[in-house]
Amino acid sequence: MTDRLKGKIAIISGGATGMGGAASRLFAAEGAKVAIIDRNGDAAAETVRDIREAGGVADHWVADVSNEAAVNAAVKASKTALVR
Question: What three-state secondary structure class fits 54?
Fold first, then answer.
């Protein structure tokens, strides 16, 4: 883990698997607090677990990016949870 992104929050939509999952892990490894927003809650929880086991800070919120209200709510919740 490095401190290049220490103090930053990375909000990653589709951040549970594939390229999004890789981005979530990379941002966490660089020191960012990671907010994963994904419609697959189980996969998002697994990615969060991996990040935390590696010493990172992450949480997830379930939302489909086609639902603007759900995404806005997830972003607001992630800011509240991760800004500390």
Answer: coil
Q: Please tell me what DSSP assigns to residue 39.
A: S
Task: Name the pLDDT band for 69 (thresholds 50, 70, 90).
Answer: very high
CA distances from 68 to 23, 39, 71 (A): 22, 13, 5
Q: Reduced to 3 DSSP states, what percent helix, strand and coil does the chain have, rounded to the nearest 5?
A: 50, 20, 30
Q: Indicate whether 1 pLDDT > 80.
A: no
| DSSP-assigned beta bridge partners for residue 33 | 9, 57
Residue 5 identity (one-letter amino acid): L
Sheet of strand 33-38, all strands in order from the earlier edge strand to the far edge? 9-13, 33-38, 57-62
pTM above 0.90, yes or no: yes
**What single DSSP character describes residue 42?**
H
